[in-house]
Amino acid sequence: MMVDHGHYDALLALAKKRRSIRHFRPDPVPDEYIERIIEVARWAPSGFHSQPWEFVVIRDQTLKNEIVQASNRRRPETGASREAESHAVLPRSDFAVAPVFILLAGDWRARHRFPAHITQADETAEADVFNSSLASAFLLLHLAAASLGLASQWCTRVVRGSSGESVRRIMGLPEHIRMYDLMAVGYAAKPPIEKPLRDLAGLVHYEAPQEGEFRTPEQIGADSQKFRAWCIRAH
Ligand SMILES: Cc1cc2nc3c(=O)[nH]c(=O)nc-3n(C[C@H](O)[C@H](O)[C@H](O)COP(=O)(O)O)c2cc1C
Hints:
The chain has 9 helices and 5 strands. The protein is α+β, with helices and mostly antiparallel strands.
């Protein structure tokens, strides 16, 4: 039987092409491209087809600067928190230069039609379905950007913790609109460095895997150290 692998090959190539770019050229991105990117994400799967997403496109430089400043602000009172630690090891990205930010948010009210087996399961089940729905749309945003030859960065720090509170105020978002993550998009100022990956054979398991098939704590420690060092270099 002849099998057409065209879609698979194209998808794998796109998955490899999509990389985190943290240095952008200021060249503008046509609005048409932004609409095309969001059009792809609109087709994402979502729990109970709830489509909780709202896409906020930010092109205004003053607003972008305010968002970046809010996300770079340190909070000395947090001491040795994860946030402070990540500020210490990761140099500031210049994502303010990216001509467009797309803030992906979800309307928390969209979960109201979730069935009882979700709403009555445990307190995180609703949020899991809601966040997974947004994650599926967010990845499609990045893949769509890559398919159009654009570079993108996943900017979690903008929407989390005290930065997130400031950004919410700056944007004037109502309480029920929950920020998921922000994507900076534009043209790459420099290419990404080659990415190391875990081996395929070590992460595929069949049927009911035994505990011994998974990584030991030592292997996880070594992997984490290696990949984290790579990640910091990639910034
Ligand atoms: C949940 C999640 C959060 C991330 N947060 C950030 C972030 O805040 N800033 C950033 O520069 N990259 C962020 N990234 C990108 C990862 O660092 C990146 O995907 C990883 O290092 C692999 O590199 P690649 O994207 O080039 O393949 C995030 C990725 C994910 C999936």
